[in-house]
Amino acid sequence: MSTAMGWKWLFIVLAAAVLMMLTYAWIDGGREPVHAITEPVAVPELPQ
Question: What does the DSSP 8-state code read for residue 12?
Answer without folding.
Answer: H
